[in-house]
Amino acid sequence: MPFRELGRLEQRVAMLRDYDTGAWSVRELCEVYGVSRETFYVLRARRASGDLAWFCGRSHVAASCPHRTPAAVALAVAAVRRRFPRFGPKKVKAWLERTQPGTVWPAASTIGDILKREGLVTARSRRRRGRELGQAETLAQEPNDEWACDFKGWFRTRNGMRCDPLTITGTTSRYLIEVRITEPTTDGVRPVFRRVFEEQGLPAAIRCDNGPPFGSQAAGGLTRLSVWWLKLGIAPHFIRPASPQDNGRHERMHRTLKADTAKPPCDSLAEQQVRFDAFRAHYNDERPHEAIDQPPPAALWRPSPRPMPKRLLEPWYDPDHQVRRVRSSGEIKWNGGLVFLSEPLIGETVGLAELPNGTHIVRFFDIDLGLIDRQGLFRRFAPLRHRLRYAPEDPNQQILSGINPV
To answer: Is the separation of the CB atoms in 173 and 297 below 8 Å?
Structure first.
């Protein structure tokens, strides 16, 4: 009878019993019971040793493991995870190496195994990642070369109040400069930026989306807020329309902010702001950040050396420009008539330079706003955005600006 059709233990006993009769050779017994000669001799040696359980299977697990993680290390790993439930193995390792540098900590993969063994992680289905389409380029190298700002999607607190958190981060350091509940308007946002500028100094540029209060459909995409930035010496960097991935670093922070502070929301706006402040302190000073090789953002952040000026800059134009001040109606006086430019530029001065074809290009600081043709009609430009795909231009047409006309 084949060996697999009977219980393994009974077969071993029967095989050695048949061997004791002397009627079978070792080769014949191995063929009948479907085992190798090596297995037969091992079983015979076990029985001869006097082991009463010679026919039972034995574990192949090593009797000792010199590389086993010490119990104290496993306890420390589990303690960090319990303190910071959203830390993965890499962040747990970075936290331990920074706070207890004298200990040799296991690899992130081993830490992941410890967390699984302790029941501190839950399995989740893996999603296939979409194809990478690239991201908008940034030339920021220092902490204050560029900041990023946006409103995290609004939600309601438990008492029914609408909560609109304005967030500001440093592009290179990932430092969370501010999280402040305010109205998504220029009047609501400007005091927040003013206080941040007074405390942290001025960046060289701010990356933002195209919607109010940061951007608009006006000439150059400017709003009263971005006009104020320009007068402070800050360049607005507008991302492509409907392309939040162009501000992906900031949006990724929003994901962590939402998970840690808004699920569930607080009872009131005041309590929600307290939670935002606590998250900001944890995010900057404690939480390792993988994108910057696991130190907390505060390790790379430093305030800007450019202080908030007492007086705003006024635009300066080359001598070949004609200077006009935008009236309260958003218009300028031109060739005996009025030409509408933009409401956000009310009260500001713009420069107009004549081109060889007789048209005039309108500028505010170094921003090209649009063209005034020979008939006195203004054709505005959209804001400059990186990596937009335009239709091929006529090679004979003169290139006036890198800004796409609306």
So the answer is: yes
